[in-house]
Amino acid sequence: MAGGDQKEQDEESKKRSARDICVILLIVAVAIGIAIGMIVYLAGVPQTTTKTLNLTPKLEKAIKESVQVSLSSTPEWSPYRLDTAEAIIGLTLGYPEAYELHQPAYLAKLVNMNIDLQAALIMDSELTSNVWSRGKLAQYISGIVVSSQHENATAYYGSTNLLDILETQLNRSLDYFRTNRFALSWMALAMCQHDRTFDQQYEDILTAHPGTYTFGTDEASMIAMACICLNTSTSIPAANAAVNSIVTEITKVNNGGLNVYSLGLAAQALIATKNESYADHIARTRMAILSRMNVTDIMRSGLAVSHILPVLGGRSYLDIEIHPPLPALPGGTSSTVNLQITITMQDSIMTNTEKNWSAIVMVPSNPTLLQAMGALQESTNFSFETTPTSFGPMVTTIDGITRNETNQYWQVLMAPDTPLSKGVSSTYPQDGDHYIFRLTSFGPH
Q: Is the pTM for the entire model greater than 0.85?
């Protein structure tokens, strides 16, 4: 009998091992497919249009450092790594230029977000686990939308209707949402983004007991944003009550003892109202966040990135909007190529220096010069900054040297001496091209 039991145990162990191997192979296959699909979707991304924020140097520095930390600190995949969607939401809202200026790292983060969701769907096609059915899927839907991967979440990679799954989750977890309106707010935002009906029974839960919040300011902030998005006769009074509660808390001494996560959500809720009377509250809350957070430590967490980074960039979760998917290239094949590029910086005005950077970088097929510069920045110590203009991004800083905006500009030449006729987002380098950025003065000195 003992030998028979051992044989059965061995057989069962072999079956479990086979199942585990199959799951791992499926995840690897999905990851490869996603990586190829992401490149196809995202190559040739149109120029991001952003408003000029007139950021203070301290605020701008915090945003850029936060982006760098988040993009460089994605942990290896595991079934419990479920904050990559929050990271994508925060990065894209807080610094829309992240795709253009940090393309390889941004794409890697985006692929990881898709791996998390695809791996979960392989294990459970309806995402019935409590982890996914109580708000997590809603966050990943928002991540899909904000990164413009698809027109909407109804055909995720051609087959899965995530919104149908979300609606089923709403019904399955109804009792849970009665006691956790923070999570219910994420569900409402995901439905609202797609203009899907958020049934009255769920809205009644969301808007109940105005002014009373189990999870304090965090819950009030999420309810405020969800209710503003729903924009119904029931939800707007509930949003106003939540905003009043938020203002009361953040105007207390030391912001009512709120931590930087709560301050981030609170400021997002005030931004979402689009009410100018809250401008001073938002500014004070933002400065409180800057004075308290350690970027290097906190921005490793997707939660922190989603709560805080949008506020630093002047946005909220309500700025997540559905856009047409980014164009795919013909043929549906991988579109990355290796490009040899050399960039020379010449400054004879401020520092009397000249530097060269040269590398083989991985870029989308037919890349812009801006994309190639971003890839060079990722792989070398080359650095640059741009500012949005009506003509596209304008380079303002090379290697830490910032032009005087009143009478200087970075002239861009194809080596040795041919000025470019178009900007960095409309110039398409060829393999081996050499560009010179020369600090140049005009008008009175």
A: no
